[in-house]
Amino acid sequence: MNDRPSYHHGALREALIAATEALLAEQGPEAFTLREVARRAGVSPAAPAHHFGDAAGLLTAVASLGFAELTHALREGDTRGGADALAALREQGVEYVAFALRRPGLFRLMFRQGRLREDAELEQHAHAAFEVLAGGVRRAVGVRDAAAMRPAHWQAVTALWSLVHGYAHLAIAGKFDPMCGPGGLEAFVGQGLRPVLQAILGGLFAAPAAARGTRGARSAPSRTGGTR
Q: What is the Cα–Cα distance from 204 to 169, expressed in whole angstroms?
């Protein structure tokens, strides 16, 4: 069977990725099949194998692009925070949840074990997103690089990540809907997440760290624990 429409110069790859993202947005990763993606792209069921090999290959490519977009969103939040390191971390958290709300199917796929391949490009993009958060924590405590981070600093990274990741999953699962009011979910997130993050950041990084928390800070970190 001839594939219709006719694709040239990578357009088939792009069409399959677009069809996958549309299916994820509508039905989530649980409903993904290569046959349905091929149908939406207007090609034969065998066509995706040319670029991706199998379903895991296509989903891995889409997840990799998702992490690249998440990295961009986190950097936007970081920039919005300006020279205030804690404000930059707070805005990163807001962007993390906002990304999940914009792209819920893609977001769930990105963290879904068992459907993605081990892949160097995926790992690179996922690490880049993580590094935006880790870099924000380093600024907040005045640490130059990852090698100088102590266990307490890594615990702050995981605490912040766990908070916004859990918040994102609750939001896209509709658990906040009864509390949203007339402004809807996005307004609820905007009004509620910032002060929550601000309070937690104030606890994680005590007043001295908050006071010096600028991008140019070089002060020594608090002496809790050893090296990682």
A: 23
